[in-house]
Amino acid sequence: MTGARAAALLAWYRAERRDLPWRGETDPYRVLVSEVMLQQTQAARVARHYPGFVARFPTAADLAAAPLAAVLAAWSGLGYNRRAQRLREACRAVVRDGWPHTADGLAALPGVGPYTAAAVACFAFGEQVAAADTNARRVLSRWRGEPLRGAALSTAAAAALTGDAGEWNQALMDLGATVCTARRPHCDRCPVAQWCAGPAAYDPPRPQGTFAGSNRQLRGALIRDLVAGPATAERIARSTGFAVDDVRAALAQLEADCMVEPGGGGEWRLAG
C-alpha cells in the first residue's frame, strides 16, 4: 500500500507541481530566505516578494552586512518583521562560521526551527530528512487517521518518506496546499484518496486573533514608519492613528527585541 501511495503521489506532483520562484533552488541562502518568508505566510504572497528581496540581497554576506532599515524596507508587506531581523542574524552566523550541512546543524542558527532546518538541509544539501510543514502535517494526519504534532509528527513523516527527500517533501506540501486543504479538502481529485483515513482526522491549529487593532498591527505600523526615518512616539501616533500610550508600549517591546532604539530629542529609530 505504501509503495503504491507514494508512486501515485509522486506521479501527481510531477504533473501538477506549483510553479514557484524558489522551486528547484539549491543555494542554501535562497532556500533559507524562501522558507523564512513562508513561515505563517501564504505562498502566493511570498512569490510576489521573494524575487525582489534576493535581487536586493543576492547572498548571505549581502544580507548580513545590510542595515536593518534596508532589510525591513525590502521585507515590507510580508509581516512578522522579527523574521527578517532573525534571518539577518542567521546570515551573520553563516558568514562567520560557514553553512551547516545537516538539519541538526542548521537548527542552531538564529530563528531557524526544526522544520526550516530540515527544509534547507533537504533542498540545499540533499540530506534525506523529512520536512513536515503545516500542509504536510495535515496530509499525514489524514493518512494516519489521527492528529499529529511534535514527536508523533516527526516519526510519521520519517516513516512516510519515500525516494528523494526533496521531491517527496515538495509533493506532500503541494498536495496539502492545493488539494488536501484545511476546511474544504478536494478528496474527489486527490491522487491518494484510496489510502487516506479521511479529512476528519486533521486537528487544525487555533485561528489567529483579529489583526485590525492588534498589537501585531501596531508593531508593523511602527516599523513601517521608522523605515522612513527617526520619529517621536507622538509623531508615530499621529501618522498611524494609534494612541500614544500604546505606541510607547509597543516601542518598549520592540526595543526589548533589539529592533528599535532611542535616539536624540525623544526620537526613536531602527536598531543598526
The count of DSSP E runs of length 2 or more, i.e. the number of strands, is 3
Describe the biggest sheet?
Answer: 3 strands, antiparallel
> Structural class of the secondary structure composition?
mainly alpha
Shape: globular
Strand order of the largest sheet: 1-3-2
- Percent of residues in helices comes to 55-70%
Contiguous helical run count: 14
First-last Cα distance: 55 Å
Arithmetic mean pLDDT: 92
* N-to-C order of helices and strands: HHHHHHHHHHHHEHHEE
Measured by DSSP, the beta-strand proportion falls in under 5%
- Rg from Cα: 21 Å
Low-confidence stretches: none
Walk me through what this model shows.
- The chain is mainly alpha-helical.
- It has 14 helices and 3 strands.
- The chain has helices at residues 2-16, 28-38, 43-56, 60-65, 68-75, 82-97, 103-106, 114-125, 134-144, 150-160, 165-178, 215-227, 233-240, 244-256, and strands at 231-232, 260-262, 267-270.
- The protein has a 3-stranded antiparallel beta sheet with strand order 1-3-2.
- Strand 2 and strand 3 form a beta hairpin.
- Helix 2 (28-38) packs across helix 3 and helix 9 (134-144) packs across helix 11.
- The radius of gyration is 21 Å and the shape is globular.
